TrEMBL record:
It is an enzyme of class 3 (hydrolase). Gene3D superfamilies: Glycoside hydrolase, family 7, domain. The lineage of its organism: Eukaryota, Fungi, Dikarya, Ascomycota, Pezizomycotina. Its EC number is 3.2.1.-. Keywords: Carbohydrate metabolism, Cellulose degradation, Glycosidase, Hydrolase, Polysaccharide degradation, Signal. The keyword Transmembrane helix does not apply. This is Glucanase. Belongs to the glycosyl hydrolase 7 (cellulase C) family. InterPro entries: ConA-like_dom_sf (IPR013320), Glyco_hydro_7 (IPR001722), Glyco_hydro_7_sf (IPR037019). GO terms for biological process: cellulose catabolic process.
């Protein structure tokens, strides 16, 4: 939701390099997923995954040279005196997915280890083929997957989400790596920690982070719409639309807004989003170990993107959530906060939440559901990641945020984790063996991706702006 810091090892920090290295062959792990037309009627797709370029080794592109272009959290001044020269001088290399990054794909399952050697976490994308990301069109569709978060404690985030990236990763004359090497990332935080953006390096104005030996920020940021289908650990979970441009927009300095700028709301994107976190919405016994959704066991997450006319040409006006565990369909929890009703993200919910919680209405201010409609209609790329948070220690997900806030004030408490938890150095030491597993990814029309007992199905009445009734689980 707030920050997606790309933290990797000293020798394997990199990003959108112009050239392609040959030291390590790039072999994308195979990952199958399904498209469905009705429950039990699904077709398997032979997809792949690719590691984001910000985790990769970037080195001199000169023949026979493997001098690092980026070491620790600083650039080589000779190879990278400016953005354009750096992109021309540096090559992005292939990845040892399991050995170096802890990324293992088996059939329809993707396991992401947290600490592997000196590498921490990873960000990966679903691919259509070896040169292109899979583009998902989710209006009037549902997205379903199984997840195991039992090994994710406080301060960790196993995140599965959609962003408005280009299918080819921004392949161009100045970016010869493209999607094959995980380039082109953007999100609603307009991240400025990316080493290369738009085919150029981000070296100009680069400032190493004081609390991270591997990260820094440059002048430029990469902005676009973001749909957080799933951000979670074993303690708390949230799903959150973030308004923004339907394709990569490059921003400059503090005008970017988001996590990396002094003015969080200065940019064109919505950094906060309209989140549904059951704990934050008042139900403190719904999600967690031994609770209604028992996070000690695998469960299925169903997210439905409903439109005002029940077609893919309509306008997004509601995002619904269901869970399935041990053969039982579990509706999302109801908000118990006075002034915020319901168990889904819709226009009324997103207008009422910032008022009641005394938050900035950034989702509405940056375009709200109209913006998300444009992003989903243009198609978005699926991201599968595991990360810890150098900006806010993940308190926004699983603790009190701000840490000095009164947890009895609506909107402050988001989970049971202590406000002292989530410090990356502690998390990386105490939870080094943590992992998340995503599996059984399915996409299809509403109510097509899972079997549900007929008694569990219901019909939603016409919501504001919805001219017809439609069957939804």
């Amino acid at each position: 939701m707030y920050s997606k810091i790309a933290l990797a090892s000293v020798l394997f920090q990199a990003a959108r390099g112009q050239q392609v290295g040959t030291n390590t062959p790039e072999t994308h792990p195979a990952l199958t997923w399904e498209t469905c037309t009705a429950p039990g009627s699904c077709t398997s797709n032979n997809g792949k995954v690719v590691l984001d370029s910000n985790w990769r080794w970037v080195h001199s592109a000169a023949a026979g040279s493997y001098t690092n272009c980026y070491t620790g959290n600083t650039w080589d001044a000779t190879l990278c005196p400016d953005d354009v020269t750096c992109a021309a001088n540096c090559a992005l290399d292939g990845a040892d997915y399991t050995g170096t990054y802890g990324v293992t794909a088996t059939g329809n399952s993707l396991k992401l280890n947290f600490v592997t050697g000196t590498n921490v976490g990873s960000r990966n994308y679903l691919m259509k083929d070896d040169s292109n990301y899979e583009i998902l069109y989710m209006l009037n569709q549902e997205f379903t997957f199984d997840v195991d978060v039992s090994n994710l404690g406080c301060g960790l985030n196993g995140a599965l989400y959609l962003v408005s990236m280009a299918a080819d990763g921004g392949l161009s004359a100045t970016n010869k790596a493209g999607a094959a090497y995980g380039t082109g990332y953007c999100d609603s935080q307009c991240p400025r920690d990316l080493k290369f953006i738009g085919g150029k390096a981000n070296v100009e104005g680069w400032t190493p982070e004081s609390n991270s030996a591997n990260s820094g920020t440059g002048n430029n940021g990469a902005c676009c719409a973001e749909m957080d289908i799933w951000e979670a650990n074993s303690i708390s979970a949230a799903y959150t639309p973030h308004a923004g441009p339907a394709s990569l927009t490059i921003c400059d300095g503090d005008a970017c807004g988001g996590t990396y700028s002094s003015n969080r709301y200065a940019g064109d994107t919505d950094p906060d989003g309209c989140d549904f976190n059951s704990y934050r919405q008042g139900d403190t016994t719904f999600y967690g170990p031994g609770m209604t959704v028992d996070t000690t066991k695998v469960f299925t997450v169903v997210t439905q993107f409903l439109t005002d006319d029940g077609t893919a040409d309509g306008n997004l006006n509601e995002i619904k959530r269901f869970y399935v565990q041990d053969g039982t369909v579990i509706p999302n929890s109801e908000s118990t906060i006075p002034g915020i009703t319901g168990n889904s993200v819709n226009t009324d919910y997103c207008q009422n939440q910032p008022t009641v919680f005394n938050d900035t209405p950034s989702f509405e201010n940056k375009g709200g559901f109209a913006s998300m409609t444009a992003g989903l209609k243009a198609g978005m790329v699926l991201v599968l990641s595991l990360w810890d948070d150098y900006a806010d220690s993940m308190l926004w997900l699983d603790s009190d945020d701000p840490a000095t806030g009164d947890p009895t004030v609506p909107g402050i408490a988001r989970g049971t984790c202590a406000t002292t938890s989530g410090v990356p150095s502690d998390v990386e030491s105490s939870q080094a063996s943590a992992y998340v597993t995503y599996s059984n990814i399915k996409v299809g029309p509403i109510n097509s991706t899972f079997a549900a007992p007929a008694t569990k199905r219901s019909v939603l009445g016409a919501a504001a702006g919805r001219p017809q009734r439609r069957a939804v689980l």
